[in-house]
Amino acid sequence: MQRRRCTSVRRHHHHHYSAESEMETTDSEAEMMRCISCQEDYDARDAGTCKECYEEANETEEELKREIDDLKAKVAFLRFSSPIDSPLQLQASRFLPPCFSDVVLVASHDSSDSSAAVPIPAHKAVLVSRSPVFRAMLENEMEESRSGTIKISDASYEALRAFVNYLYTAEACLDEQMACDLLVLAEKYQVKHLKTYCERFLVSKLNWDNSVMSYAFAQQHNAKHMLEAALSMITDNMDKLTKREEYLELKAKDPRLVVEIYEAYLSKQVNTAAHKDSSQKT
Amino acid sequence: MQRRRCTSVRRHHHHHYSAESEMETTDSEAEMMRCISCQEDYDARDAGTCKECYEEANETEEELKREIDDLKAKVAFLRFSSPIDSPLQLQASRFLPPCFSDVVLVASHDSSDSSAAVPIPAHKAVLVSRSPVFRAMLENEMEESRSGTIKISDASYEALRAFVNYLYTAEACLDEQMACDLLVLAEKYQVKHLKTYCERFLVSKLNWDNSVMSYAFAQQHNAKHMLEAALSMITDNMDKLTKREEYLELKAKDPRLVVEIYEAYLSKQVNTAAHKDSSQKT
User: Using 50, 70 and 90 to split pLDDT, how confident is the model at B118?
Assistant: First the structure.
């Protein structure tokens, strides 16, 4: 009751003020409201939300932030200390604690390079929990399980190190080369979470210059999001495509992939035409 | 330029409309704006935000939700399959895959109960990564590390099972008893994340009936948030305190804790008095 009376007094005051000032000013002043968030006045055209919805949205934001903090704490709790920080040869010394590893991974990419032979310690339980391929390999008592050594072909020592590290920590420091290397390993050992991570990174780095190579790479390693993004970039620039060196190389090496580019382009043209047609009708 | 002209035309139209209608109506209509969120009209008193801030807040919310999805995926990736689902005696059968455990935990709470002797399989690497107490125990080649058996005193089999499960999954199904049991283990083995989780649950279940017991429990197990919450509830109801049975028990068993209740009450009274005093002066 008290509140209503207050309002009518305020309105009355407003009227009084209106009578004193010019008509043009009154109209726009009556329309003005102050934004709680940016503290600037706004008129009907720029109206956002009422106070209640603003407060609700604020509460939601606070809740979401709390949830994020909780999830971050959970990630920190679940994250493993990577066994890579204490490689086997150092574990023998009494300065570093043991990591209780029961298996090693060896990159057999470049056997000429002596560093390739450095084994990376790991835990069967971790590998099995992160990759269905390692699970099948280790649980079925295959050679790798008995020997305690898993050979990873076609991977550099650095890439394998980063791969194992990701299995323990869900973290990787990516550049384009490392993202490609890790995507290949993630696809091979079916570590979906890592594959998504690499794909996102590579899509963010996509440009006209690397689009054809990215397209071929995505095809080869079954990276669908990256494939779509690269294909879309290529078909948007068809007029420049045939002059590119990578195009000629791809045509020679894998003409089927070139055919798929043309098919995607054609289907895009048909869709665009259909869209234009339907928008002209309405 | 085009936009400005539009605006002035609209304003002009508005003027025209105002002239036709009653003054009172015009004023309140001009003040009304439509909330984008709840679709209801609001006036100056209930103004929330302008459109720009609303859209910005919306974007922030979307971003936070994406971050939550990413973090949830990370948690799912980092979460371990608990070794408890495949206890040792079943692992011998060929139907369940091995979990590659290298240590067992045994609850030595009630040795008369035969189920207490059931060992719970685990991995040294996991225990070490979650608890500094297990780390010291296992890395320093103490008896537990050599024998591969860790005896956990004063814990039921169920509590230990839930404890180990939490170390692998960061999940626990709590009731008040289980939250107390897990808090005790979390404090003993310094698993902070679990302790916070149990404490939050117990604080949410705090009421006048369990406040004195909760206070004593929190004191004993160094649960500061729970202690503060319980103490605050007790000192808010001092007039009823001395009639409570738990109070008499606590006074007999641990009079120091009762003294601390009175000290907290006194300090609260002094603070309240000081607050009143300063607000009267202003």
Answer: confident
| Dihedral sign (CA B6, B11, B14, B15) | negative
The yes-or-no verdict on residue A166 having pLDDT over 90 is yes
pLDDT tier for residue B113 given thresholds of 50, 70 and 90: low
SS3 of A212, please? helix
Residue A27: per-residue pLDDT: 46
C-alpha dist (Å) from residue A238 to A220, A243, A245, A258, A269: 22, 10, 14, 12, 11
The shortest CB-CB distance from A78 to any of B45, B46, B170 is to B170
Domains of chain A listed by start with CATH number: 2-78 (no CATH), 81-170 (3.30.710.10)
Nearest-by-Cβ selection for A79 from B35, B40, B78? B78
Pairwise CB contact (< 8 Å): B74 & A126: no
Q: What are the b/e assignments for A201-218, b being 16+ CB within 10 Å?
A: bbbeebeeebbbebbbbb
**pTM of the entire predicted model:** 0.79
Q: Do A52 and B48 touch (CB under 8 A)?
A: yes
3-state secondary structure chain B: CHHHHHHHHHHHHHHHHHHHCCHHHHHHHHHCEECCCCCCEECHHHEEEEHHHHHHHHHHHHHHHHHHHHHHHHHHHHCCCCHHHCCHHHHCCCCCCCCCCCEEEEECCCCCCHHHHCCEEECHHHHHHHCHHHHHHHHCCCHHHHHCEEEECCCCHHHHHHHHHHHHHCCCCCCHHHHHHHHHHHHHCCCHHHHHHHHHHHHHCCCCCCHHHHHHHHHHCCCHHHHHHHHHHHHCCHHHHCCCHHHHHHHHHCHHHHHHHHHHHHHHHHHHHHHHHHHHHC
Residue A150 pLDDT > 80, yes or no?
yes
Most A CBs within 10 A among B16, B38, B53, hence the mutation to make, goes to B53
User: Does position B164 have pLDDT exceeding 90, yes or no?
Assistant: yes
Q: Which residues in chain A touch residue B6, judged by CB atoms under 8 angstroms apart?
A: none
Contact B194, B171 (CB under 8 A): no
B139 band by pLDDT with thresholds 50, 70 and 90: confident
Q: What is the ipTM of this complex?
A: 0.78
Contact B127, B167 (CB under 8 A): yes
Q: For residue A278, what pLDDT band results from cuts at 50, 70 and 90?
A: confident
